[in-house]
UniProtKB/TrEMBL annotation:
Residues 202-264 form the SH3b domain. This is N-acetylmuramoyl-L-alanine amidase. Residues 27-86, 87-150 form the SLH domain. One of its GO terms (molecular function) is N-acetylmuramoyl-L-alanine amidase activity. It holds the Pfam family SLH. PANTHER family: N-ACETYLMURAMOYL-L-ALANINE AMIDASE (PTHR30404), N-ACETYLMURAMOYL-L-ALANINE AMIDASE AMIC (PTHR30404:SF0). Residues 1-27 form the signal peptide.
Length: 472
């Protein structure tokens, strides 16, 4: 191969990933304070690979820092893929603006953590080894009889924790981030444990998709170690969130539970349609950067629709759907850039999210579709999607119904897949604005868009019933 040819090919491979970076979760880099000789290096980087352990913006992990209750909720929440969207909580000392608020609320709802009787959570209180043993026992379903000593034993018997040199567990000692990472990595993946054969493979499951990747951890970010084919059998040991730890021949690893069924015969009942995994949904929060969109009562459309879009994204990420965003930060993307992005990722469904304005004179929700088949040929499906999203938004937000309408907006006209543009409400109307500015109501709007999209797929004959729970 000529050197120039080699360089052309090399630059081809170097350039391609750049296009994806904007829409890819930040990759696990390396922490400046966790070097190759650190005793918890393997476990910390294992967790970092799946985004479970994260460092500061300066790239520090702070391995010797004591773990707070908020951090413990975040570590466990990420491991179990709980909903981490910042939101109001049951606790007076955990506001919706707190970074860990979503994980704290989710962990409490799942019974992994609990608050205090005075409705406080004490997010900055440090965690002891004993408390950590109880949290991990609850998160991974180990029997612990409500006793700290039994929880400690549950971890020791599985090779997740070791006792101290003096034979005690050190239950009252604070736990630091390095050690918490070690215990969590061992709980997730038996390969890190200090004992052999601690896992009981017992539940037969069958593959319900053409080919299912087996990975080293509970997330698509982990490398693939193999694959199992349609109708083959695997033996499951336990679940980590939506992922099963399974044995397949000589391989062990994680597979997404959406593609497993619990009968040898393919019945499809209760299983998610395997075609769903091939569906690409593009979410398009309008405006951004120097383009604020509509403004009213001190808030901007670009911020309302980005936050709502990120919340919708978070819901779809818990499903087999492939969800992508035209923007996930406060940046400006042109209308044609949004359309060409949707086409470039072969989107099957396009949902643009906006808020309205009309000098204070209008109020309510409306959803647009493009009703002229010579441009975007998907008139019927676009209309169906618009009506499903509109109905869910009305039920969730209880604002005026302005109906579904034909609209000649660039992003729904120039696209080549079913496409809608929804207006969540009027930002310059006091009543609508009260909801648009509220994290609670934006969560409600996000769930509505998610559920409306499921309703659309269901109407199109896809089996999606199992996915409605995600919005609970
Ligand atoms: Zn707009």
């Amino acid at each position: 191969m000529k050197r120039s040819t080699f360089l052309v090919i090399l630059s081809f491979f170097l350039v391609i990933p750049l296009f994806g970076i904007k829409h890819t979760a930040q990759a696990a880099g390396s922490f400046t304070d966790v070097g190759a000789s650190h005793r918890a290096m393997k476990e910390i980087y294992y967790l970092a690979k799946g985004g479970i352990a994260q460092g500061s913006s300066a790239g520090e992990f702070s391995p010797n820092k004591r773990v707070t209750r908020a951090e413990a909720a975040t570590f466990i929440g990420r491991a179990l893929q709980l909903n981490g969207t910042k939101r109001p909580t049951d606790f007076k000392d955990v506001g919706s603006g707190m970074v860990a608020s979503g994980y704290i609320q989710s962990a409490v709802e799942k019974g992994i953590l609990s608050g205090y009787s005075d409705k406080s959570f004490h997010p900055y209180q440090e965690v002891t080894r004993g408390e950590m043993a109880v949290m991990i026992s609850k998160a991974f379903g180990y029997k612990y009889d409500n006793k700290l000593s039994v929880a400690a034993e549950a971890l020791k018997s599985r090779g997740i924790a070791e006792g101290k040199a003096d034979g005690s567990f050190g239950a009252d000692e604070w736990i630091i981030r390095a050690d918490f990472s070690v215990f969590l990595a061992r709980a997730i993946n038996p390969e890190f444990r200090v004992k052999e054969n601690t896992v009981d493979f017992k539940d037969s499951r069958w593959i319900n998709v053409d080919s299912l990747n087996i990975r080293t951890g509970p997330s698509d970010a982990y490398p693939k170690v193999g694959a199992a084919k349609q109708d083959e059998q695997v033996i499951s040991a336990y679940k980590v969130g939506a992922w099963n730890y399974i044995k397949y021949g000589s391989l062990q690893g994680f597979v997404h539970s959406a593609y497993l069924r619990d009968t040898a015969e393919a019945t499809n009942a209760g299983n998610v349609d395997p075609r769903i995994a091939k569906q690409v949904i593009v979410l398009d929060p309008g405006h951004g950067g120097g383009d604020s969109g509509a403004v009213g009562y001190g808030i901007k459309e670009k911020d309302v629709v980005l936050d709502t879009g990120l919340k919708v994204n978070n819901l779809f990420k818990q499903t087999p759907f492939q969800v992508k965003m035209t923007r996930s930060t406060d940046t400006f993307v042109t209308l044609s850039g949004r359309v060409s992005y949707a086409k470039s990722v072969s989107a099957n469904t396009f949902i643009s999210i906006h808020a309205n304005a009309s000098n204070g004179a209008g109020n309510g929700i409306e959803t647009y579709f493009y009703n002229a088949a010579y441009q975007n040929p998907n008139t019927d499906d676009s209309k169906l999607l618009a009506s499903k999203i509109q109905n869910r938004l009305l039920a969730a937000l209880n604002l005026q119904n302005r109906g579904i309408k034909h609209g000649s907006f660039h992003v729904i006209r120039e696209n080549t897949m079913p496409a809608v543009l929804t207006e969540l409400g009027f930002i310059d109307n006091k009543g609508d604005n009260d909801k648009l500015r509220s994290d609670y109501w934006r969560n409600a709007a996000a769930k509505a868009i998610y559920l409306g999209t499921l309703d659309y797929y269901k109407a199109k004959g896809y089996e999606v019933d199992a996915l409605y729970d995600v919005a609970k």
